[in-house]
Amino acid sequence: MPPLGEAGAHVAALHGDEPEAPGLLDKEVRQLSAVRRFGATGAVLMAVGALGAGAQPVLQNPVLGQRVLGLPARIPSVALSIALTGSIMVVIAWLVLGRFAVGTLRKGNIPRRMSRSQLDRTLLLWMLPLIVAPPMFSKDVYSYLAQSEITARGLDPYKVGPAQALGIDHVLTRTVPTIWRDTPAPYEPLFLWLGRGITAITGENIVAGIFLHRLLEVAGVALFVWALPRLARRCGVASVTALWLGAANPLVLFHLVAGVHNEALMLGLMLAGMELALRAIESRDPIRGRNLALLLGGTLVIVLSSAIKIPSLLALGFIGMALARRWGPGLKPILKAAALLAAIAVATQAAVSLGTGLGFGWIHTLGTANAVRSWQSIPTLLGMGTGFVGVLLGLGDHTTAALSLTRPIAMVIAALVTLRMLIATHSGRVHAVGALGVSMAAVVLLFPVFQPWYLLWALLPLAAWATRPVFRVTAVTLTVVVSLIGPMPNGGEYRPFVIVQAVTAAIFTVLILIAITYDRIPWRRQLRADDNTDPVSAYPGSS
To answer: Would you call the peptide bond into 540 cis, given omega within 30 degrees of 0 as the criterion?
Structure first.
């Protein structure tokens, strides 16, 4: 039986084994340090700009009226320029960091990469300013706080929204975006239970609540920093490259850390659960004892991730197909694996729903986000475009009817792609991690609503499996575009002339900084190892 990681010819365009590599040369280490400082400076500028251009609370704003810290809020156009400058710097630094992570540096025919410790320190340095900064790019964290308060009061967050449960003038309701004030919680019970614990600690203190929610998401990031290199080695991919494309991705920094989105915890638990389960399935030892505990534990962790947000439950299907393949060919092992994992999933979800006291109301609010007509979503854009054409032709506005067709058709296509990947996983042509990534990509692209951070549902598992330039170039391009042309730092909108002024100032500033650092950072070309300097140390332990 061929190994699970062996790819068929039809996936050769995306995947190929990628060996680990020795460490960097002395000159390259110095240049890496310069890139690290450039990105860290950008993160600091983002944090400073967020004091005036971030998604600040309406009430309990700690910098309001402060002489120094409150200055950015009094000059919002300048604050926006600073935040955008920092964002561009972080994205550029990440792109240049890729030269040290992908293995394009060579001494003769030997590729070299930065070490795991070098990448970890870079990621930590870029994250720290954003951990203490005000929220950016989204106001969802204020909905988290309000829904957690509703849960703490013993009310049903799946039946009432913040305005009805807390009152329109409540300190937490005031900062919730208007569109969500009357909307029940779209999140699963485990997340609201964790939020209830945060509320028990912070009460109505918005700043403390934001900080604890952010620490929760940072814990999620730490989980997939742990899982990604292990999954990458399982798929024959260089661990540092997977971490660069996945964990160090600007979308992670901007939207999971700075934006405080619960996708961080969902994805961290999902990937950690996959690693635990695959460790048992791909072991040469029988699935009993320790391996059985790993399989059950990994399955449990994946189900818990779906109790944060439901899309991660898709990972369970690919674990099931990998397990069925381990047990042998035919339909019987598939049914056996499906029955086992389904029983664990149902039992765990029921235990979480009943144990938290929140019940099963979350089932009825899963489609809450569909109320937003997001033009970035392909099926929604097609439906809105069809309705607009109808209006132009004088046939009336049939946008709602068009959306009722385009959205279900898109979901059917995503389901067919997922089914194809499940079959490919069972046959061994595609590894479970890669198949999950491809399926998540189909779901994200065909989902009725699109948000920038949704790309990470697919990008993180694919970062641990796909190695070909056709994928990596596409992933990098999407990351850059979505990172820089996405929500404003305050989570809302500015007047067009303010945006134009801020973007112009940011670009001009970044060009000056590139000119200043031109001799220290390899902006134009890949590094050439034309000296005889030995690597500072062997991969992966160098610092």
So the answer is: yes
Q: Alpha-carbon distance 81 to 388, whole Å?
A: 35
Please check whether residue 438 is in contact with residue 430, taking contact to mean a CB–CB distance below 8 angstroms: yes
Helix H, strand E, coil C: the string for 330-372 is CHHHHHHHHHHHHHHHHHHHHHHHHHCCCCCHHHHHCCHHHHC
CA 151 to chain centre: 26
**pLDDT, tens digit (0-9, with 9 covering 90-100), for 361-416:** 888 877 666 666 666 777 777 777 777 677 677 766 667 777 778 878 888 999 99
What residues have CB less than 8 Å from 23, skipping those under 6 apart?
112, 113, 114, 115, 535, 536, 537, 538, 539, 540, 542
Closest CA to 101 of 242, 249, 252, 247: 242
CB-CB neighbours of 375 under 10 Å: 10
End-to-end CA distance of the chain: 41
For residues 420, 425, 431 and 432, what is the CA-based torsion angle, rounded to 10 degrees?
Answer: 90
- Contact indicator for 94, 241 with CB cutoff of 8 Å: no
Q: Is 289 left (phi over 0), alpha (psi -120 to 50) or beta?
A: left
Integer Cα distance of 241 and 226 in angstroms: 14
DSSP 166-187: H-TTSTTTTTS-GGGTTPPP-S
CB–CB of 478/24 below 8 Å? Answer: no
Report the alpha-carbon distance of residue 344 to residue 426 in Å, rounded.
20
The per-residue pLDDT for range 77-110, each reduced to its tens digit, is 888 999 999 999 999 999 999 888 886 665 556 6
The ranges assigned to domains in the chain are: 375-450
Residue whose pair of structure tokens reads 């854009």 in the numeric block = 381
Token pair for residue 260? 């405080």
The verdict on pTM exceeding 0.85 is: yes
Which amino acid is residue 512, in one-letter code? I
Token readout for 71 is: 């200055």
